[in-house]
Amino acid sequence: MDIKLFHKDDGGVIQLIELEKIKEWSIEMPFIFVEYIKSNKLRSYRDPKVEAEVLQYLNQILNKTAIPKVKQIFEGSNQEEILSILTIFEELSETNMRAVIPIRNLLENLTKQNSKTIVSQTRKILANIKE
Amino acid sequence: MVKTQYNYDLKATKKLFKEYLNKGTEKKEINLPENTVKIDDLKRKNVLERLYKLADDVINKINISGRPSIKLPSRSSSNIIWDEENDLLLLGQQLQEKQFHTLTSVADITRLMRILEIIHELLLKDLHATKREVFYTDVKLFNEQKISDKSIEDAAIMLYTTRNSTHIVATANGTCIGRLRIRDKTDIIDLEGLGSGGWKISPFLDNIEIIESDAEFILAIEKEAAMMRFAEDRFWRKYPCILLTAGGVGDIATRMFLKRLSKELNLPVFSLVDSDPYGHYIHSVYLRGSKRLSYESPFLATPNIKLLGVLTRDLDAYKIPEVARLKLEKVDVKRIKDLLSEEFVKRNKAWEEDLRLSLKKNVKAEIQALSTHGFEFLTEKYLPEKLTTGDWI
Fold first, then answer.
1. Helix, strand, coil shares of chain A as percentages rounded to 5?
2. Using one digit for the tens of pLDDT, what is the confidence trace for B29-73?
3. What is the mean pLDDT of residues A64-73?
4. Is B360:B340 a contact under the CB 8 Å cutoff?
5. Distance in Å, alpha carbon of A21 to nearest chain B alpha carbon
6. Cα–Cα distance list, B388 to A131, B6, B14, B381 (Å)
7. B326 in helix, strand or coil?
8. What ipTM, to 2 d.p.?
9. Cβ of B229: how many Cβ atoms within 10 Å?
10. Is the full-model pTM beyond 0.80?
11. Strand, coil or helix: what is A16?
């Protein structure tokens, strides 16, 4: 199945891309997707039950695939890879800061790193997503 | 003047959507007959693997015999098979062999190898090129675009993959609008939020992914003019749908995108075409694919598409005045007779009857003929009524 279904009380159906497909996406894309649906679509469904189910699904995307992928890289020893991911999230935080909020804790942990470059880049992102 | 307010619940369409949703969760893959060629829609990495294997085979033949050749499925009309069960035109298993060392095939082989080289470069760089661009990479060799086009199709079939998978694309003419959200790499596109113009269907469909929709049906419209009417009325807001047009016969990207929408979202698909044989032909190309690209039919055809209108019988049912009707021309009569001789029409009695009625009454009409009852008649009465009653073929 490529699509996950949510049935509304009025007979309507909401179809969202399946988690398995999302797992193949680039590292930042699941965050962009989750933020997009939360901010732009959720309320338009006009069905509290479906809104809650979709929200639960979005959290599942974050917790099962999006955040663990970032965590694995940030907790790894490949500094070059960490920096390249930080560059991606820095760009994203400038245009779509809410999409980056789910990795705030991971970013805060990164500020304890020894590498000055990593710490400085991380602080830039944290400044961008400061609410 | 008091405007008539119509209210339709689209009962028949919703019922069909539910059936498709239930069926769709059970069966997704089409089982092709054994005597046909199976083509795969592949990722970049997999096309490259097939390309390297093909090159290795040729090198092996050179090492063993010094006289290499390649075999590929024949695309001649005798090798095109109609798969009755899936209602698709497919390619049979007849093979043709091209020798590297004979005078008759050396030019053909050289062009084919050049195309494979171009495909290799495109895949490695993750770029796409149009057929026209490919022609201009080596004008001396290809001479005419139709020759490079043929080599491109041969290369795709030789790799047993769709042409889109080779990253060589045709320019796309289609537009799409309505209750749909897609992803193009890291951009999310909301097809409800693009004004009246909609989204121009990308020929780079491997970059496109359907991410969200609350549509309940799809409408494939023959003409831009009719599409504009729907867009101006924001038809999808009242009736949850996705609208799509190719402005005539569906090009590859439009047909492939329609196929993906229908397959992935399990939505009923309807066509709205002129009430003439050319309109019926456009519907048939969406339905079962074209003969030229029969090898790609499973990725291009939408076998469950319904012909919603404008049917010949609608002209009386909706009281289209005589002045808005046209007489059939010689070419129309020939086209109707050609369609009537096709197996897929013979099998669909209602379709056959409607074509015969057109012949009997010597009549055809454009979609716009419906506007004799007012500009909003198409979107506020004709379409919703037919979608509610299930008056389609």
1. 70, 10, 20
2. 667 778 888 888 888 999 999 999 999 998 998 899 888 888 888
3. 96
4. no
5. 10
6. 50, 12, 8, 10
7. strand
8. 0.93
9. 20
10. yes
11. strand
B272 HSE (CA, 13 A, CB side): 25
Flag if A28 and B240 touch (Cβ within 8 Å): no
- CB contact burial A51-81 (16+ within 10 A = b; e otherwise): bebbeebbeebbeebbbebbeebbeeeeeee
What are the b/e assignments for B10-22, b being 16+ CB within 10 Å? bebbbebbeebbe
Domains of chain B: 11-30+170-389 (3.40.1360.10), 44-169 (1.10.10.10)
pLDDT computed for residue B286 by the predictor: 93
Burial class (CB in 10 A: 0-12, 13-18, 19+), B146: exposed
**Residue that is written with structure tokens 């009380």 in the block:** A9
The string of pLDDT tens digits covering residues B296-346 is 777 888 989 999 989 999 999 999 999 999 999 999 999 999 999 988 899
Dist CA A44 CA A59 (whole Å) = 19
Q: Which residues are within 8 A (CB) of A28 and not within 5 positions of it... i.e. 6 or more apart? A: A88, A89, A92, A99, B186
- Enumerate the residues of chain A whose CB falls inside 8 A of the CB of residue B213: 14-15
Name the residue facing A15 among B183, B188, B213 (closest C-beta). Answer: B213
Mean pLDDT of chain A: 94
Q: Which residues of B touch A14 (CB under 8 A)?
A: 212-214
pLDDT tens profile B220-260: 999 998 999 999 999 999 999 999 999 988 898 999 999 99
Digit-coded pLDDT (tens) for B166-205: 999 888 899 999 999 999 988 999 999 898 889 999 988 8
| Interchain CB distance below 8 Å, B212 and A21 | no
A24 contacts on B by Cβ (under 8 Å)? none
Other CB atoms within 10 A of residue B26 CB: 6
Give the phi and the psi of residue B5 in degrees, each rounded to 5: -100, 120
- Compute CA distances A3 → A55, B28, B210, B217, B265, whole Å: 16, 12, 9, 16, 7
Among A1, A6, A15, A37, which would you mutate to test the B interface (most chain B Cβ atoms within 10 Å of its Cβ)?
A: A15
For β-strands B187-190 and B199-200, DSSP reports them as unpaired
Asked if residue B1 has pLDDT above 60, the reply is no
Dump pLDDT digits (tens) for B261-293.
Answer: 999 999 999 999 999 999 999 999 999 877 777
Active-site positions of B read 136
